[in-house]
Amino acid sequence: MSQSYNAALSLPPPFQLVTLREAGDAYAHAQSIAASDGAGTLVWARRFHMAEFALVLEPEETLATARRVVYAAGNALADALAIHAPPQQPIGFDWPGGLRVDGALVGGLRLAWPSDAAEDAVPDWLVLGCSVRMIVMRAGEPGFRPLLGGLDEQGFEELSPSVLIEGFSRYFLREMNEWNAEGFETVQKRWLQRAEDGTAVLLDEDRLAEALRIPAWLDPETGEPWL
Q1: Chain centroid to CA 115: how far?
Q2: How many C-beta atoms lie closer than 10 Å to residue 195's C-beta?
Q3: Considering the domain 3-215 in this protein, what is its CATH number?
Q4: Domain residues of the chain, as ranges?
Q5: What's the Cα-to-Cα distance from 127 to each of 114, 151, 210, 222, rounded to whole Å?
Q6: What's phi and psi for 77, nearest 5 deg?
Q7: What angle do CA 67, 72, 76 make, to 5 degrees?
Q8: pTM
Q9: pLDDT surpassing 90 at residue 36
């Protein structure tokens, strides 16, 4: 697997881009360099059918509360999609990280942290991973899998992985700035407006840790969203 530090995306500061070839694992690679490369490192696996990237973070909160960053990231991802969505196309979340468009699962978010990190201590790093299926490469007609799919089947034919990631980076900075200025409640309220089940489970920190450790939206055999 090769690695490049060439600027292939237009990212705002403080993001620093690392690109991998198509076969690379952005989520695993980001974890392997998190301690050395530090906060703002965004690892992008350049696949044409998937927007797949991972972001290194260095939180200032304890691990138990820092995991809530997945909700800020969900808001950012949804807003980055919404500006390219067909009119009235609903974008929603499965708790805590699944992403749905018009009810169909198209991707999700996950989170990693050091294996020796204590719940009541500030972790050295977090790695936020994101996978969004841009184009369905296999499986049958959408009608036979109405709850699973890709963005191409939802009217996003012109949206590229690079444009989606660039949009995410800008909206994510907005989310973090609002969190710092106004508190987590602002992030929480925005996320709940798109929650598919409508339940307020955000502050259940024990459940959140387990749900992020084994994401329900991720097919462990393919490493991609279920299809």
Answers
A1: 21
A2: 18
A3: 3.30.930.10
A4: 3-215
A5: 9, 24, 16, 20
A6: -65, -45
A7: 140
A8: 0.91
A9: yes
Alpha-carbon separation of residue 218 from 14, 19, 151, 212 (angstroms): 29, 22, 16, 11
Query: How many Cα atoms are found within 13 Å in the side-chain-facing hemisphere of 70?
Result: 32
Length of the chain counted residue by residue = 227
Q: End-to-end alpha-carbon separation of the chain, Å?
A: 26
For residue 182, pLDDT beyond 90:
yes
184-to-50, 78, 161, 173, 177 alpha-carbon distances in Å: 30, 18, 29, 14, 10
The amino acid present at 25, given as its one-letter code, is: D
Average the pLDDT over 141-145 and give the result: 51
Cβ atoms < 10 Å from Cβ of 208? 22
Helix H, strand E, coil C: the string for 208-224 is HHHHHHCCCCEECCCCE
Q: Looking at the predicted structure, is the pLDDT value of residue 101 above 80? A: yes
pLDDT at 194 over 70: yes
Tens digit of pLDDT for each residue in 42-84?
999 999 999 999 999 999 999 999 999 999 999 999 999 999 9
pLDDT of residue 31: 98
